[in-house]
């Protein structure tokens, strides 16, 4: 078997104490080895979140021309299945922080080059989930994405309204709850010239993201793109 451990750099003390094993192939070195990361990107595809069609970037022409839906260009690592699903699950529910960096890197691979000011807006997580998991998983991905582009800033422009619980709700309840799930953070000024990357971990019904897009647009945000770790095909 090929040796994928980098021998050109010394491992950090933490790596020596607690080495990572690739979640995909078990090789020692990184939480996800370069080869498994490439495999995820190759075996997946950017998808139109609305019709699940494979697309190069943004949104498919069919959905773009549908005037009743107004969705910003979307960029997705891939379908929520296989290794990508395993990683996201462990990251989100078992708080495996080490997956934040490779997930951000894979998402960045899908994203277009953006000129000018870029603000990343993580879709706010329910506070009780942050407390119980000890991790704001979407915020951490946003920070890792910003590390890859020093000019990008993370902004908590959206706040979550109280009593909006999604887990366990049925499809109709989720859509109804999502409609008033968020509000604009009054402490943050909106820059109309900036591009806002609205970030979330999964597109299931799309209700949360669509509701967030509406609020951003209603408050004068003009340039929005969606960055989503995965798309759930089941719903
Ligand atoms: Zn691997
Ligand atoms: Zn479509």
Tell me about this structure:
The protein has a single domain (13-231), classed as Rossmann fold (3-Layer(aba) Sandwich). It has nine helices and nine strands. It has helices at 13-17, 34-43, 61-64, 82-93, 100-110, 127-133, 137-148, 171-178, 207-218; strands at 20-21, 28-29, 74-79, 118-122, 153-154, 158-160, 182-184, 195-203, 223-231. Helix 5 (100-110) packs across helix 7 and helix 8 (171-178) runs parallel beside helix 9. One zinc ion (ZN) is lined by residues 48, 50-51, 53, 60, 62-63.
Secondary structure elements and pairings:
Layout: H1 13-17, E1 20-21, E2 28-29, H2 34-43, H3 61-64, E3 74-79, H4 82-93, H5 100-110, E4 118-122, H6 127-133, H7 137-148, E5 153-154, E6 158-160, H8 171-178, E7 182-184, E8 195-203, H9 207-218, E9 223-231
Parallel strand pairs: 3-9, 4-5, 4-8, 8-9
Antiparallel strand pairs: 1-2, 6-7
Helix pairs in contact: 5-7, 8-9
The protein binds zinc ion (2 copies).
Residues 22, 24-25, 27, 33, 35-36 line the site of one zinc ion (ZN).
């Amino acid at each position: 078997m090929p040796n994928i451990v980098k021998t050109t750099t010394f491992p950090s003390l933490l790596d020596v104490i607690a080495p990572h094993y690739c979640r995909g192939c078990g090789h020692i070195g990184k939480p996800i080895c370069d080869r498994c990361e490439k495999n995820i990107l190759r075996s997946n595809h950017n998808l139109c979140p609305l019709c699940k069609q494979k697309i190069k970037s943004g949104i498919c022409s069919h959905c773009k021309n549908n005037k009743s839906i107004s969705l910003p260009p979307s960029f997705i690592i891939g379908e929520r299945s296989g290794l990508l699903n395993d990683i996201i699950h462990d990251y989100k529910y078992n708080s495996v922080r080490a997956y934040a960096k490779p997930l951000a890197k894979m998402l960045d691979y899908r994203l277009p080059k953006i000129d000018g000011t870029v603000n990343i807006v993580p879709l706010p997580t329910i506070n009780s989930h942050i407390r119980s998991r000890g991790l704001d998983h979407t915020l951490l991905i946003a920070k890792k994405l910003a590390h890859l582009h020093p000019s990008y800033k993370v902004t908590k422009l959206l706040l979550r309204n109280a009593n909006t619980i999604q887990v366990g709700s049925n499809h109709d309840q989720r859509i109804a709850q999502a409609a008033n799930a968020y509000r604009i953070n009054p402490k943050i000024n909106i820059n109309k010239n900036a591009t806002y990357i609205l970030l979330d971990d999964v597109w299931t019904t799309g209700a949360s993201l669509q509701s967030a897009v509406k609020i951003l647009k209603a408050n004068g945000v003009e340039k929005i793109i969606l960055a989503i770790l995965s798309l759930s095909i089941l719903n």
